[in-house]
Design a protein that fits this description.
Order of helices and strands: HHHHHHHHHHHHHH
Helix content: over 70%
Largest sheet: none
Number of strands: 0
Distance between the termini: 10 Å
Number of helices: 14
Structural class: mainly alpha
Shape: globular
Oligomer: single chain
Strand content: under 5%
């Protein structure tokens, strides 16, 4: 009952945040001018960006394979499709249910198990956050952005840097896990979920038993962002947006950090707000900024959602069944 209430609150907050953000985005939008910009977009460049973005899931699959290591033996194409299906579910359902779905699909009927798969996904997310934050920090410190933006970047770097150190320490020692469990036993019930999340981090980190594999995961994480950045560059070029390279990096980082933290389905509202704000420093017309934000987001969520849903149907996996499994796991 308590988990059901928490879920309802999270879903409600996610939809409320989406509505509020879109209200702020649309209240000063000239829809006629916005539509004109959308019509002028170069379709060939947008299509090329979509194809490159889809290809990034092969890199994501390879990275996940490195994280899983010897815990289970998966084909690269299977891990890539598990990831696509998880993203597809995230795009249509709230509270990042796609993460559980991906873990359940990957761990079903093998030695890894859903909980083990979920632990590796937590580690993957930390590497995502760490690498995108590093890109943002270097960009903001190298390019003369406002001091406030630089401070935000440094705070984010400190948070993800601490998490990364926590994972590295937990990879080679069980001391962090023992300390964690000690404090968990002394903590009030409302704080237990934080310790559960931290333990999942450490359980996933236990698969990375060498600095070589950690370095490989880091490099593959940067490769994922490099391919995704190509989508931002191509869509921006499709709408004749010409800004310094640092601006594209800030767009990439702001949108993805926002979606890592936001509970909205598919990052709706959060993604558009991040892109619009990132482009504000470059004196680009508001309607053009909105067109770029919308097309980049649609280029990411529509093809992956379609591919993911088709694959789930071909495998006989129902989304309603995954939702039931997630509820029973709670």
């Amino acid at each position: 009952m308590q988990s059901s209430v928490k879920r309802t609150v999270k879903v409600s907050l996610g939809f409320l945040l989406t509505v509020v953000l879109f209200w702020f985005l649309f209240r000063k939008l000239d829809f006629q001018s916005f539509a004109e910009y959308l019509k002028k977009g170069n379709k060939l460049l947008i299509l090329l960006g979509i194809l490159l973005y889809i290809s990034s899931f092969a890199i994501r699959g390879l990275r996940w394979k490195v994280i899983i290591g010897k815990l289970a033996d998966f084909k690269l194409c299977d891990l890539s499709m598990f990831t696509v299906s998880g993203y597809a579910i995230n795009n249509i359902l709230p509270v990042r249910l796609g993460e559980f779905a991906r873990a359940w699909i990957a761990g079903n009927g093998n030695s890894l198990g859903a909980s083990g798969a979920l632990a590796t996904i937590f580690v993957e997310r930390v590497f995502d956050g760490l690498t995108i934050t590093l890109i943002l920090v270097v960009t903001l410190l190298a390019y003369p952005f406002q001091a406030e933006m630089q401070q935000i970047a440094l705070i984010a770097a400190a948070i993800f840097g601490a998490l990364f150190c926590f994972i590295i320490f937990g990879t080679f020692s069980d001391i962090p896990l023992r300390i964690l469990r000690f404090f968990r036993s002394k903590s009030p019930k409302f704080a237990l979920f934080l310790f559960d999340i931290a333990e999942k981090f450490l359980n996933g980190a236990a698969t990375l038993r060498s600095f070589r594999r950690i370095a490989a995961v880091l490099l593959l994480s940067f490769a994922v962002w490099a391919v995704e950045l190509s989508l931002y560059l191509l869509v921006s070029a499709a709408f004749d947006v010409n800004i310094p390279f640092a601006g594209y990096l800030v767009m990439l980082c702001a949108a993805n950090l926002g979606m890592l933290a936001a509970p909205t389905p598919g990052g709706l509202g959060v993604f558009q707000s991040a892109i619009v704000l990132a482009l504000e420093s470059f004196a680009i017309v508001y309607e053009k900024r909105m067109a770029v934000a919308l097309i980049i987001h649609l280029s990411q969520i529509v093809p992956i959602t379609i591919i993911g849903i088709i694959w789930l149907n071909l495998k006989g996996i129902s989304i309603s069944g995954i939702v039931k499994e997630e509820k029973s796991a709670d």
